Amino acid sequence: MIYKLNLKDDVTSKSVLELQMASYKIEAEIIGFQELPPLKDTIKSIKESEEIFYGYYINNVLTGIVSFKIMENVLDIHRVAVHPDFFRRGIAEKLINYVEKLENNIVKITVSTGTTNLPAVNLYLKNGYHKKEDIEISPNVYITEFVKNCIR
Questions:
Q1: Could you state, in order of their start, the residue ranges of all structural domains in the chain?
Q2: Backbone dihedral angles phi then psi of residue 139, each to the nearest 5 degrees
Q3: Does residue 103 surpass a pLDDT of 90?
Q4: Number of other CB atoms surrounding residue 29 within 10 Å
Q5: How far is Cα 80 from Cα 140, in angstroms, rounded to an integer?
């Protein structure tokens, strides 16, 4: 089940941080860059985030998260993370599809991932996203920005 998360709740924010750390450590290994911003988060920074978070639960266990902001009819996905114990179960795809349908006035969706993070790249391409550009975030480390235009 997918639920909107209350990050002011200590248990929820701690669960989000633990899941995020486990997931983004894998991405950091894949792309060869240990300085990913989500790996620097704390419970305090999670609680203070202005992003909207949703979580995917299996048997009352938080197994995946997605976060985003909406500005000028653009849904900007900031985080997509699945706990490694729950990889390859379609959780990230379900979360993305869920938030894509939350607002009727969205005209475009953006998301970024490490260029060499092929599972994430393939997820976005499979779900109708198109590569916009590669951005060098550190010497020889790139992220790819994806965009999806929405017709409602």
A1: 2-149
A2: -50, 120
A3: no
A4: 11
A5: 23
Query: From CA 24, how far away is CA 22, in angstroms rounded?
Result: 6
pLDDT computed for residue 15 by the predictor: 97
CATH of domain 2-149: 3.40.630.30
SS3 53: strand
User: Token pair of 69, please?
Assistant: 């902001």
**Alpha-helical runs (H) found in 1-152:** 10-31, 43-48, 91-100, 118-126
Cα–Cα dist 123/97, whole Å: 11
| Separation in Å, CA 58 to CA 1, 46, 68, 83 | 7, 22, 22, 12
Nearest to 39 by CA among 51, 29, 54, 53: 29
Q: What residue spans of 32-117 are helical by DSSP H?
A: 43-48, 91-100
Cα gap 142→119, rounded to integer Å:
15
- Residue recorded with tokens 């790249």: 121
Q: Global pTM?
A: 0.93
